[in-house]
Amino acid sequence: MQNQATEKLSPFKTPTQEQSELINDAKDFIYAHLHDATPAVFVITGDAGTGKSVVLSQLFYQIQQATHDNTSDMANTSNYFMVNHPELLKVYRHIAGELPGLLKKNFQRPTSLINQMNKHHETFDVGIIDESHLLLSQPDHYNNYYGHNQLLSLLKLCHVLVIVFDAHQVLRLKTYWTQDRLKKLLAPYTQHWVHLNHQFRMQADDSLISWINHFTGDRILLPLQKSFRHHYDFRIFSDAEEMRQAIVSQNKRFGLARIVSTTGYPSTLDGGQHFITEGRFKLPWDQYNYTSTPWAEIPQTINEVGSIYTCQGFDLNYVGLILGPVVKLSSDGQKVEIDTSKITDVESFKHRTDMADPQEILNAKIQLNLNAINVLMKRGVKGLYLFAHDPALRTRLYSEYQIINH
After folding, report:
1. 151: exposed, middle or buried (C-beta count within 10 Å: 0-12, 13-18, 19+)?
2. So what's the pLDDT on residue 184?
């Protein structure tokens, strides 16, 4: 039986009409610019859960099938699917191993492909990039990338790129993108932009999606509403251990229920265990996953706390989110604040030489944390449970939650 991540991204999953039209538009764009002298870029935008990865998976499968058709414009072309997220790459390679016409070697991390092409003085025809907001926008010698921008490096190697971009899922300064930055970089190239709107992941009322978007956008705390629980299991907890027990219960019923957290707790990449403690609650952060199975689909990870790096791009049935010490209620009680002094994910916020303005760096840190919260809040298909470390925020949310449930 297919796991849930593989099933979601399967090329045989029936697309919606909007998705089918988008796939056809992307194919037409590829065919039209396959032999242009300068690269062309097809950009797909949309918030988390709008089906962007589904579109890319089916698009790549279709063009790879066409490479074996001698009557097709794609005949004998060389094409690659790229993703910087190691957990998501495992899913795509698993799919490739089970389907005719798809090869695992055609699914690569961008750095690996760039270095491979440059070493052998090769180019390719079409590149499809999932989560292009994770592309490096500066050198990263630790990951063997010595260029200045991965997107520019790839444009020098191919004829057409199809990329998915969501500025709200940018999580690190070394992959710092905004839509304005992307448009400026792509200005010299032929391009076409399309936007996906419909939220597919969360079986939630639009009012809850709006509440999340304000929480992580302008940071205004809208009132909780009874409609949040229409067809969706939304809960606020005053005790993290009670939330953990509820997630364990849902995991036994439905599977793929996990605890996740924002930054703000001890976290060092030293191979050891680092715990998140909130009263009676105590669990370790997720460990590096050396297996070919995505973190959320390993049964034992019910006893770990997931991070943004293990959960981004994946569906969970239920997510229990701990809003850590970085997330606070403003003094007037109306907004969410991000306390950047409490950030413990130091890898995400390493200094950039091209960002000298202290205010720009501070704004970027705040925005990246809000992006992470947005991504984590939108992981759950069936339910979202919340616990806040900050006493004032916890009291505000829990008090409102009790009111709408009586």
Report:
1. buried
2. 93
Enter the tokens of residue 96. 């490739």
Specify whether 224 is located in the same domain as 353: yes
| Helix, strand, or coil (residue 263) | coil
User: What's the farthest any 2 CA atoms get from each other in the chain?
Assistant: 68
What is the band of 2 on the pLDDT scale with cuts at 50, 70, 90? very low
Amino acid 296 reads: A
The number of domains in the chain is: 2
Rounded to whole angstroms, the Cα distance separating 179 from 166 reads 8
Element (H, E) at 41: strand 40-45
The mean pLDDT of the chain is: 89
The stretch 3-23 carries a mean pLDDT of 75
Whether residue 60 lies inside any domain: the answer is yes
The top-scoring range by mean pLDDT among 97-101, 119-123, 353-357 is 119-123
Say if CB 346 and CB 326 are below 8 A apart: no
Specify whether 44 is located in the same domain as 103.
yes
The domain boundary, picked from 173, 195, 217, lies at 195
CB 173 within 8 A of CB 356: no
Helix (H) or strand (E) segment spanning residue 163? strand 160-165
Share of the chain above pLDDT 90, in %: 61
Listed residues 126, 161, 195: the one ending a domain: 195
Residues in a beta bridge with 380: 316
Say what the pLDDT of residue 268 is. Answer: 65
Residue whose structure tokens are 């790459």: 89
Higher-confidence residue of 253 and 94: namely 253
Supply angle C-alpha 197, 309, 381, rounded to 5.
45
Q: Is 373 helix (H, G, I), strand (E, B) or coil?
A: helix
Q: Are residues 122 and 235 in the same domain?
A: no
Compute and round to an integer the Cα radius of gyration of the chain: 21
Say which residues have a Cβ less than 8 Å from residue 299's Cβ, sequence separation at least 6.
Answer: none
Note whether 145 and 225 are same-domain residues: no
Record the pTM: 0.77
Question: Within this chain, do residues 278 and 380 fall inside the same structural domain, yes or no?
Answer: yes
For residues 133 and 205, give the distance between their C-alpha atoms in angstroms, rounded to a whole number.
Answer: 27
Judgement on whether residues 190 and 210 belong to the same structural domain of the protein: no
Which domain range does residue 171 map to?
4-195
Q: 217 and 179: one domain?
A: no
For the record, the structure tokens of 195 come out as 């936007």
Residues 180 and 275 both lie in one domain: no
